[in-house]
Target: DUF4062 domain-containing protein
Amino acid sequence: MMSSTENSKDVMTESFQMLTKYQIFVSSTYRDLVEERNAIMRSILDLGQIPAGMESFLAADEEQLSYIKKIIDECDYYMVIIAGRYGSLDANGVSYTERKYDYAVESGKVVLGFIHEDPMQLPAAKNEVDPLLKEKLEAF
Model:
């Protein structure tokens, strides 16, 4: 039989676990995955967790990437969604989506990756047309 002190500790532990919130950074190309991102953000909220993402940062540049890195630093998890597009390129020809992913890995974040099993089944507007970008997407 449990003492009332042990029972109180169990109740407090369960309450604390229910109150623990995790912040999850959601990364992907944007325009082609708006619906998917919205569904993921809602699911994270439904689980009582805190989504973070780039919805406020549609333009990609170095200044915004620095700010996004700070947000990634504050998150507990990093989620990346890959489908049929590689994304906006930086001056070195690397997508900002890949750069954020690389930063999360280098920072030691727990990474949750979701890759579309057959992006060729997506509408043409959601796939890369440029062979070089297709190649970069495959390598990523």
